[in-house]
Amino acid sequence: MLCVQLTIFTWTTIKHRRTSEDLEVTPAMLKDFQEAGYVVVRNMLSAPEVEKLKREFEENDEFKKHTFNINDGEHAKMMQVCWNYPGNDVSGMVARSEKYAGTCEKLMGGEIYHYHSKVMKKEALSGGRICWHQDYGYWYKSGNLFPDMINIFTALDPCTRENGCLQVLEGSHKCGRIDHAPVGGQVGADLERVEQLLKKLEHHYVEMQPGDAIIFHCNLLHVSSKNTSPHRRWAFANAYNMARNNSVVDHHHPKYNKLHKVPNSAILECQNTDLSGKGFLDNTKADWYDPEAEKDE
Predict the structure, then answer these.
(1) What are the residues whose beta carbons fall under 8 Å from the beta carbon of 59, sequence distance 6 or more?
(2) Separation CA 31–CA 34 (nearest Å)
(3) Collapsing DSSP states into helix, strand and coil, what is residue 69?
């Protein structure tokens, strides 16, 4: 909910809801994150911030040029563009802002750095599914020794059951890392283990409005269905790693590099459109890329 001079933030784990006049990581919010593995923040981005961010993603040719497809094994695809360094454009200001990076540092209990960001695009009536997975199911194999990593997933469009909103298993981050293997054209979590967990844990559809965000632990199991609606579903995701968890091997995402945070006001004040130095990735570097999926083309 937006006021003239003030944004009211609400965070919730679907079951629990609290309201504040500022986005502050209170002991109650921290407890929810630690117990559920995630929190949902309403109005993480204001309407003007969402519109500015969407305009950049829709109009800047660099984002278009680096967009690639993720095959879902069911003859549908989700489009994605991914980059390693935040940069100085508006998307970088969001990733470096106090309400994004600063909040993650408070939830994780120490310095973080930008691991990568991406826009995930499920187009109307065609956007493919993403299988059950943990982010650490991929990041573990990249030399990150501990699951000290976090992700913020922000809705740019309404995210509904019909257009493939995120689904989560509450508390699944406590299960530890689950084995991941090729699943339906992607790399996903062991489905036998997921089926057992579905019997024991609460399964939530995280429906959100533009500007809402879910902040979740890297071991939280999540999935999203195909977009069967006439409305697209775009989302902006920002992954962070703890500085103390610097990867021990070189890989397709960066090792520790200091994140220079900016005030929240920098998002709307930003006029820079130069995307040089962001380190865009191609489809073979996508975390869930499965070479076998190419045979389904």
Answers:
(1) none
(2) 5
(3) strand
Full pLDDT tens readout for the chain, 297 residues: 222 223 345 666 555 443 334 588 999 999 999 999 999 999 999 999 999 999 999 999 999 999 998 888 787 889 999 999 999 999 999 999 999 999 999 999 999 999 999 999 999 999 899 999 999 999 999 999 999 999 999 999 999 999 999 999 999 999 999 999 987 778 999 999 999 999 999 999 999 999 999 999 999 999 999 999 999 999 999 999 999 999 999 999 999 999 999 999 999 999 999 999 999 998 665 555 544 544 443
Per-residue DSSP letter, 89: S
Q: Length of the chain, please?
A: 297
Contacts of 155 by beta carbon, 8 Å cutoff, 6+ apart: 208, 209, 210, 211, 212, 213, 235
With vertex at residue 225, the alpha carbon angle to CA 239 and CA 48, rounded to the nearest 5 degrees, is 55
